[in-house]
Amino acid sequence: MSSTDPAPARTQTPGEVLLSATGLQKSFGSNMVLRSIDLTVCRGEVVALVGPSGSGKTTVLRSLNGLEVPDGGTVAFAGGPSVNFGGTVSGRELSALRDHSAMVFQQYNLFPHRTVLENVIEGPVQVQRRRRAEAVQDAEKLLDRVGLLEKKDQYPFELSGGQQQRVGIVRALALRPDLLLFDEPTSALDPELVGEVLKVIKDLAEEDWTMVIVTHELAFAREVADEVVFMDGGVVVERGHPDQVLRNPEHERTRRFVQRLL
Ligand code: ADP
Predict the structure, then answer these.
(1) 3, 13, 140, 250: most buried, per Cβ within 10 A?
(2) How do residues 11-33 score in pLDDT, each as one tens digit?
(3) Which of 32, 34, 39, 58 to mutate to test the pocket of ligand 1 (most atoms within 8 A of CB)?
(4) Residue 30 CB less than 6 A away from ligand 1
(5) DSSP labels for the chain?
């Protein structure tokens, strides 16, 4: 990221562990969705979470920032909150987790009655209590970076899906999180709009943002991820370098999955 960019990740020491999740468990009724998930993410690292539909990927992602409350396990940020889901978890602990990461949703989740600019500054101004003028300045720089400054006064419905998702990404960046979480960011898009969103994410990866990305785009995962984690049935079946997991998997379940999608 250049020195003129407004929203660098708050701390930039590549290599050290930023996020550590251990033993995450979650059931919805009798459906045990996460059986004991461990995940470690280092600063500047891109982790792609892949696997069949229903394997628990989104639930892991949402657990990392307290949108979902696991039944057990821990989520800890270096120098930040450490939440043990085995006991009672306070709203304060959940919001501390949220303070360290920002989510980009599959369906963009923009406020429909607010302009692009208002969508982007909502979190910085209302939640982080930053000065409005400063938030606007940051937002405009970020929008410019993804080629959407001229759309700042338009409403989400006036934008294409790809443009809306780029606003979704800018909205997450504007929070200056340590960690960016992407939940199938391109799966709601028409095929011709996927590339523009993947390009933005790829640029962020090159700028050493720390990211966990749930995706079905295996070719993309192979290109940008430092580590691929393959989940099936609520467990991590296999993890490792993208070339190993996606091209030469050890496990039969992984092999079947990648053969279908690559
Ligand atoms: P993936 O992201 O791999 O497709 P999810 O984490 O979305 O998997 O879902 C895993 C399982 O948990 C699915 O069977 C899904 O139906 C179930 N599930 C997810 N969220 C809820 C919920 N809020 N209530 C009940 N079941 C849920």
Answers:
(1) 140
(2) 445 579 999 999 999 999 999 99
(3) 58
(4) no
(5) --TT-S---S---TTSEEEEEEEEEEEETTEEEEEEEEEEEETT-EEEEE-STTSSHHHHHHHHTTSS--SEEEEEETTS-EEETTS---HHHHHHHHTTEEEE-TT----TTS-HHHHHHHIIIIIS---HHHHHHHHHHHHHHTT-GGGTTS-GGGS-HHHHHHHHHHHHHTT--SEEEEESTTTTS-HHHHHHHHHHHHHHHHTT-EEEEE-S-HHHHHHH-SEEEEEETTEEEEEE-HIIIIIS-SSHHHHHHHHHH-
